[in-house]
Each structure stands twice: as structure tokens, then as C-alpha cells.
Amino acid sequence: MDFVYFMYDRNSRKKDVTKYLKMCNILIFAVLLIVMVLAAGGNASASPPDEEWNRTYEMSGITSVNSFQKTADAGYILTLSPRGKYNARGNSQYYFFDHINVLKIGPNGSEQWNRTLDGTFSDNRAISVLETSDGGYLIAGSIGDCDNRNCTDDVWLIKMSTQGQEQWNLTLGGTGDEEMAFVRQTADGGYFLIGNTDSHANSSDIWFVKVDSNGNMQWNNTLGGIGQDKAHIVKQVPGGYIIAGQTDSYGAGSSDFWLVKTDTKGEEQWNNTYGGYSSDIAYSLQQTLDSGYIIAGRTKSFATSHGDFLLVKTDSNGTEQWYRTFGGVGAEFNPSVRLSPDSGYILGGKTFSFDDYWLIKTDKDGNVQWDRTFEGSGLDSFQQTHDGGYMINGDLYDPYKTWLVKKTL
What we know:
The chain is mainly beta.
């Protein structure tokens, strides 16, 4: 029988063992590093945001933040409407708004400039603001000629330079009331506006308007039926526009979510309603990665109490795929939805269940991953920031201030 002998040199064996241990350590470190990276990536969107900073801005009276948007310099532009005198309008009590404030702030919330826009009538308010392709800003709002019991409102457009100097302003409207809801710039340098009008019928219809870069009307269309129909937001999508709002001309209840698709000229292509037996109103809309839509609003049809948040997901043709409700023992208001980096959604709104501002993170199917409330009864709305975080805004009343809170994931 032959034997095979393995001869070991002591120094060589020591080197081999040392090399083996080093390789094991490297392998263990690599595995731990991969696990840590995967865990961090998996939790980035599934963890509640932390506060980065919050700031207040002195105002002359009770002031409402109407709209705020990100700007190209990583800052923000806000429009605000200070309350004027308290008066009657029709059969209800009503606050007039004397003027519009436009506030530009930097990435860390520092004030860069503040401008006041005075209208020619007794009621002047901003609704929407955007940064334009020339680095300036367009403010869309309403201007009203009011006596003690009646107002006739028109749409008010104001174009401003980069530093907030007024370049032009004009009004659009008919014989009745026109109110603005949303404005965005088009590829040709003009603007599309969505709002509501009763100049063309005895009831409210959606009013869709396209103007050129100087505010000259190019076309306008009305959308609606015999009841009260209103738009709250519009998005430009391939081949036209998608509008979300409310209707009681169609649908099942006293008011339903209404989604309307139009061509590039504002002509209706299809519309769908979503809701139940009671009042359901859509306020926010985003196109999703699968070319469908996510709609956020407020529901009484499916609410457990005084009104809950309602999130509806549709396909590209507006066919409902799922819906989810979110609420507590109180009423929930002013919902808004954004897409999150992991294909899920961030829903934010005012909650009287907790008397705070409420952010809810869901996955792509609407299942809650986390939620957090932010203390402050004056917080009203939120916006995504350049770094993937969130800005929440609102008002403080003693003393009167506008309040911004920056949250970072």
C-alpha cells in the first residue's frame, strides 16, 4: 500500500491560516455591508421624516397661504392673502381680502423678498403660483367687485420678474362669477388655467382656458352638466390634460370625485366618477408610473365619522383599481397626494381627529407604511422639496405669522 505524506512547513502553515482568516473577515464585512445598505435603502421611504428647520414670517393680520411651489434655485415661492373686513356675501358671512403678498424664500427658509399686489376692487386673492420658463413668476387668483351682499369675481393673472417686479396683469371673465383653481405653463410659453364659471349656465361648470405668454386668451371650454361641477386641479399628460374635481351632475351621491380627460384643445374625451351616496370631493391628482392616476380627496360616503381622506387609484382610462380611506374620530380636511421615490404615495392633510397636520406614507397599493402627525393647529398643506423631504406650511394667530416647517427623510 502506498502512502501519501503531506509535509507542512510551520511558517508556511502560519501564513496560510493568516490569509484564510483575513479572507473570512473580508467576506463577513462584505456581507454585513450589503445587509446594512439594503436595510438603509429599504427603510429610506418607510421611515417618518425628521424636522430640519422651521421658520415664521411676520404678517400684518390673519394671512392664509394660498399656494407655494419649489423654485429652480432650490428655494420656494409663496402667495398669501391677508384677511380684510368681515362682511356678508349673498346669504353667508364672508371675509374680503385686501391684497396679495408674494414671498420668496431660500433653501433654508430665509426671506429673500416680499411683494404686495393691490387690486382695483374690494376683494383680491391669490390661488395658484408657478415659476415661469424665463425665471419669473405667474400668480393666478381672483378679483371681485363687492358691495354689502354681492360679489362678481373674475380670474386675475399677474406676471412678475425674477425679483418680483410686476410685468403685466389682466382679468378674464364673463357676466357671472369666475374663480381660479390651478395654473401651469405650456411648452409654447403660454399657460393653461382651470377654474369654475357660472357665466355660461345657471349652475357652476368647469372653465378650462388657454392663454399665450402675454395672457391673451387662445381658447376656452366649459365642462359640466345640469348640476354643480367644479375643478380643483389639472395636469398635462401625453395627448391632452387630466382634470380632477367634483360633480353632482353625474355619479352616485350628492357630490362625487370627477376625473375628466381632454385633448390638447380642452375637448372632453372621457370622464369617470368615484364615490358613494354622500359627498366626495377630489382635491389632488398625480399621474402614476403605470400611466394611471392617483386621486386624493375627502369622503363622507365611506367615512367613519365627520369626513375622512379618500385615496383612489385608477388605470390610464380612469377605471378604478382600488380605494383606501384614512381617518379618526374627527374630520379630516385639505388632502394632497405626492408620489414617493419607492413608487408609493405620501398623503398629507389637516386632521381634527388629532388637531394636527397628518402625513401618511403608503406603498403602491395604498397600504400604510408609516404615519405621523405634526403639532400645530395652523398647519394646512405640504409640498415635496428638492432633496426628497417635505415642507409643511400654515398660519399662527398670536401674533400673526406664516409658518413653514421643513422635514427631511
